[in-house]
Specification:
With 1077 residues, the protein is an alpha/beta fold. The chain has 37 helices and 38 strands.
């Protein structure tokens, strides 16, 4: 049937900030939905709190509200906009939960607004664990023996009947939050209690354990005419017991027989019908017993899911786009396939290649975190690879992760567990270690094979299906064959490349470097060829140039003759390099396409908008490594390559690419290196007569001690050429420095360690600027809430600055212009300054895109990345009509979102190493209101009343100023540890003294647990006091209490509370704000 004409305006609820379990795949799905609905003539209203997304660009929806995602705020938007319908299925679990709350609260009915894409009854049936179990049994599907409970007492008898071997899953949570596994009564009680706390409806499902079973997922779509298609089958390499987001997954499923697949397919179709998802996509997860073949249904997501993005990229079938069109009345047979132009969406995709998704973790950012993989998701990103075989796809996927590995071993990077890496003892140590799944398990399995372990031994240790183990064994056996054969036979070389071996691996095997292998390979005629992703196994012609590499006799790349610019993406998301850089890459593609260039995107991240097949003219889904990028350059011969937008990943390739003759446009690699190299940068700063904290470099503990003694403690130490403050630390004494040098030099083995004098009590400033080699535009100046010493990526910030002296602001602008011109920047530049007693110090200059670009662009209305791309391609700022610095008439606040709840036992203290996974934005007329909105959006809402607990370090006690008085005047009851209480009493402020842990009972942790505290302000200093306050901070975060670890954040919160009490917050669209500038 044709699209609906009774609805005109559709409201899309986004997924909010990037968090573990809900990442940028929902930017991809939301962006697709916005484009699809506007294409059909609907007016689209979007609400999302995340400024880093393409989805929240003002061009993507008709009205874009960057506001906190709460029921109260969404009701105000609905009241203001009066949409006809809400699409709840493209905003992840957040969007779905909010839509349910709006419907159940009667708000949708009040404003005559309906849910489309999934009805309330269907959402409830899929998400409510009890209703879902009943529905599965009704449609003839088996489920694990289970019980839904709402209290620990209800759970105990059932747990005992299972022998306490159970999987516990909370209802209505994302990324497996709160889920756990138990093997005894104590573990059972703890996990049930934790799950009940995290479930928004205080409900958990207790299931019989299916650990070790095989896990599968099917992506299914249904339309109003009850047509159903299975878009993709996905098999987890890892068995049940590891969250699917933390598992290596493969598409299509590899180990099902046709009969088994048809049984699963029939079950999926029956399930989507029984649940009642009328239109759109659903993800259904199954477990299969490896011995008996018993198949049970694990869960269903009645929405576009994390796996939907993977399935879309794996098949070329745009699930979110088609789901949006189905939601407004189309049927599958009425929607054309974009790639073939001939087949409709009712044709199930067929693929003749293998896709592998491999997660990326960030445990190095959280010392002390448990790195075992369980039913709660812990990964922060993922890479996807495509090959003709599983072996090729797996090896490409591993080198896509950018963790220093170049394939499945044979790269010189394996780390032995014992003193003798070739011994039987080493093999047995590996077999014991891999019983607990950890991020490096796939590499350890390969090592065990090299040491003579059998498939049976490895299956018993891991429960990984024998088919996958056999393929891994064959890769390791090929290593030995390659070593024996040598590099001179072209047939040997070709066979190695068909199995996915990288040039780097082959160099390690044959005693060559990767460029020597590359030269020999090309001389032998062994050259990468590129195949199309076409959704139909080449049955129909593909019109969308979406490519992957392999080694075959046929190349499917079509030449256009147009000038080409290649954009290198950032690879998998990680802390320090996330969606913000993908945003910049996408903007570059959009701008350069508009200017008539043929754009080529290279990336390996399936979650992002950059890897959507219609973002660029050509998409290469490939690892962003030197070998793979050079292969594409050989084939495409671009007129320019952009390395400055994808974060550190492409920047690390810049020098080698330039040496290989690749035409890099924009700021030259030499200028980038000049800013990164400490000695050259110091000379540059001195030449311009600017200030810089005293600093030097060191490559040994002895050198480091000498530098620190000369500069004076405390010092900031970090490796060079890293992103996200990786391995950055403030050290206060020589023993701490020695420990750092022993541990951290390996963080960047070929680069020296940088040592800077730490500026205490300084205000940190971030500046984003544009330069065309002559003119410089200051895109935005951000004042950090936290003082210098907290990584800029973890600090809240305000744009424009809220209390800087105008003379200091002008000085910052002048210094920025001088640095941009001296470095001959062509495009974007980010500079970090510290201001101490009106003196301006240059901390860091990055002549590239920064993670603040999306925030600044949305705060000012200037699309900085688009402008920068055009400068790189040859335009000047004057030609683009940009001659004045933008200055908004409203205030924007950026706040970060931290993943500490996922890592029990890890201290939440902020420092110079970045730990946040995402960010939110608040916009309003005053700094207080903007900051308050950002706190609400980040789920760190400060209370309007109650008891505040304060425990300040000695330095902060003298700098507390009026904070205690301000809190008392706002009506808060104050509680503090003895030293802090004494300072408050000296100011005449009434305060109750609380015991520290270990002093007496009830101590402060008891009182937090008892619900007596509503807000924690705790500012530790140095490693000892960090340990003292760890328990307080962990207890607070586990109870969702707002906690602030800097005085500046607490003062900003006071401003926010005052502003909220005046009650004049506004809800306005980004387009309205930008119209004022």
């Amino acid at each position: 049937m044709p699209k609906r004409t009774d609805i005109h305006k559709v409201f899309i609820i986004g997924s909010g900030p990037i968090v573990i379990g809900q990442a940028c795949e929902f930017d991809y799905s939301g962006t697709q939905a916005c484009k699809a609905l506007r294409e059909e003539g609907y007016e689209v209203v979007l609400a999302n709190s995340n400024p880093a997304t393409i989805m929240t660009d003002p061009d993507m929806a008709d009205r874009t509200y960057i506001e906190p995602l709460t029921v109260e705020v969404l009701e105000r938007i609905i009241e203001r906009e009066r949409p006809d319908a809400v699409l709840p299925t493209v905003g992840g679990q957040t969007g779905l939960n909010l839509a349910v709350a709006l419907a159940e609260g009667g708000i949708l009915d009040t404003y005559g607004c309906e849910l489309i894409g999934a009805r309330l009854a269907a959402i409830k049936k899929a998400e409510d664990r009890g209703l879902f179990k009943e529905a599965m049994l009704r449609c003839g599907c088996d489920v694990p023996e289970s019980l839904v409970v709402r209290s620990l007492d209800e759970a105990k008898d059932f747990g005992a009947s299972l022998g306490y071997e159970a999987i516990i899953r909370p209802a209505f949570t994302l990324g497996g939050s709160g889920a756990g596994v138990s093997f005894n009564r104590e573990e059972f009680d703890r996990v049930v209690r934790w799950g009940l706390e995290l479930s928004p409806i205080h409900e958990v499902l207790i299931e019989e354990s299916v650990l070790g079973w095989k896990e599968y997922e099917l992506e299914v779509m249904r339309d109003l005419h009850d047509n159903v298609v299975v878009v993709c089958s996905i098999e987890n390499l890892d068995p049940m017991g590891i969250h699917t987001g933390d598992s290596i997954t493969v598409a299509p499923a590899q180990t099902l027989s046709d009969k088994e697949y048809q049984v699963m397919r029939d079950a999926a179709i029956a399930i989507i019908r029984e649940i009642g998802v009328d239109t759109g996509g659903s993800n259904i997860q199954f477990a299969v017993h490896p011995g008996t073949g018993r198949m049970v249904v694990i869960e269903m997501n009645p929405r576009v899911s994390r796996s939907s993005a993977l399935a879309s990229k794996a098949t070329g079938f745009p699930i979110a786009k088609i789901a949006a069109k189905l939601a407004v009345g189309y049927s599958l047979d009425e929607i054309p396939n974009d790639i073939t132009k001939e087949t409709p969406a009712s044709f199930e995709p067929t693929i003749d290649y293998c896709v592998t998704k491999i997660p990326r973790w960030a445990f190095e950012k959280f010392p002390g975190a448990d790195d075992s993989l369980t039913v709660q998701m812990k990964s922060v990103g993922e890479a996807m690879s495509i090959g003709r075989t599983f072996k090729e796809s797996l090896q490409k996927g591993l080198r896509s992760l950018e963790i220093g590995r170049f394939g499945l071993g044979a790269d010189g990077r394996d780390k032995p567990l014992t003193a003798n890496p070739e011994s039987e003892d080493e093999k047995q140590s590996i077999l014991r270690a891999i019983r607990t799944p950890r991020p490096d398990r796939i590499f350890e399995v390969a090592r065990a094979f090299r040491l003579g372990a059998t498939e049976e031994e490895l299956y018993e240790a891991t429960r990984i299906d024998p088919w996958f183990l056999r393929n891994i064994r064959e890769i390791t056996e090929e290593e030995a064959a390659l070593r024996a054969a040598g590099p001179r036979d072209p047939a040997v070389m070709r066979h190695a490349k068909e199995l996915g071996f990288s040039d780097y691996q082959l160099g390690c095997i044959w005693g060559m470097n990767q460029l020597e292998v590359r030269a020999l390979r090309k001389e032998q005629g062994v050259i990468a060829t590129y195949k199309l992703v076409d959704t139909c196994a080449a049955e129909f012609e593909a019109y969308t140039p979406y490519y992957y590499s392999t080694y075959s006799d046929e190349d499917e790349v079509r030449d256009s003759g147009r000038p080409k610019i290649m954009i290198l993406g950032g690879g998998p998301n990680r802390i320090g390099q996330g969606i913000e850089f993908d945003y910049c890459c996408v903007h570059a593609a959009f701008a350069l396409r508009e200017d008539g260039f043929e754009t080529i995107m290279v990336n390996s991240n399936p979650e992002t908008v950059s890897t959507d097949y219609d973002t660029s003219d050509r998409l290469y889904f490939e690892p962003v490594t030197l070998e793979d990028v050079l292969n594409i350059c050989d084939r495409e011969k671009p007129t320019g390559v952009i390395v400055q937008f994808g974060g550190q990943t492409p920047l690390n390739l810049a020098e080698a690419l330039e040496k290989a003759g690749v035409p890099i446009i924009g700021t030259t690699p030499a200028s980038i290196a000049r800013a990164e190299d400490r000695k050259e940068f110091r000379e540059l700063v001195e030449k311009l007569n600017l200030r810089q904290p005293a600093n030097d470099t060191a490559t040994s503990p002895e050198e480091a001690r000498a530098v620190a003694d000369r500069i004076g403690y405390p010092v900031v130490v970090r490796p060079s050429f890293v992103l996200g403050g990786r391995a950055m630390e403030i050290v206060y004494n020589e023993p701490s420095l020695d420990r750092y040098m022993r541990a951290a030099v390996s963080a960047s083995p070929e680069r020296p360690v940088l040592i800077d004098r730490f500026l205490e009590s300084a205000i940190e400033i971030d500046v984003d600027a544009l330069c065309d080699g002559t003119d410089v535009i200051i895109g935005g100046i951000m004042q950090h809430i936290e003082e210098a010493g907290v990584h800029s990526g973890d600090s809240a910030c305000i744009l424009p600055p809220y209390d800087l002296d105008p003379a200091v602001v002008e000085g910052i602008k002048e210094q920025t212009r001088a640095l941009a011109r001296e470095l001959n920047v062509l495009g974007l530049m980010n500079i970090q300054y510290a201001v101490q007693d009106h003196d301006i110090y240059v901390l860091e200059v990055n002549p590239r895109a920064s993670r603040t670009v999306p925030f600044v662009s949305k705060a000012t209305g200037q699309p900085l990345a688009k402008i920068a791309a055009r400068i790189m391609a040859g335009k000047t700022l004057r030609e683009l009509g940009i001659t004045e610095d933008p200055y908004p008439r409203y205030i924007s606040a950026k706040e970060v979102v931290l993943p500490f709840i996922k890592f029990p036992g890890v201290d939440i203290l902020l420092g110079p190493e970045m730990r946040s996974t995402g960010e939110v934005m608040g916009i309003d007329s005053s700094m207080g209101l903007a900051f308050a909105k950002s706190q609400i959006a980040a789920a760190n809402r400060v209370p309007m009343s109650g008891t505040v607990f304060l425990s300040l370090n000695d330095r902060d006690k003298s700098k507390m100023g009026s904070l205690g008085k301000d809190l008392a005047e706002l009506g808060f009851r104050l509680m503090a540890t003895r030293g802090t209480a004494a300072c408050l009493e000296k100011q005449g402020i009434h305060v109750e003294t609380a015991y520290k842990v270990g002093e007496d009972r009830p101590h402060i942790v008891d009182r937090i647990i008892n619900g007596e505290i509503q807000w924690v302000i705790n500012t530790p200093l140095g490693s000892t006091s960090k340990d003292d306050g760890r328990t307080i901070r962990r207890t607070a975060i586990e109870r969702s209490l707002p906690i602030m670890t800097t005085l500046s954040a607490a003062r900003a919160a006071v401003l926010g509370i005052r502003a909220l009490r005046r009650g004049n917050t506004s809800v306005r669209s980004l387009q309205e704000y930008h119209a004022e500038t």
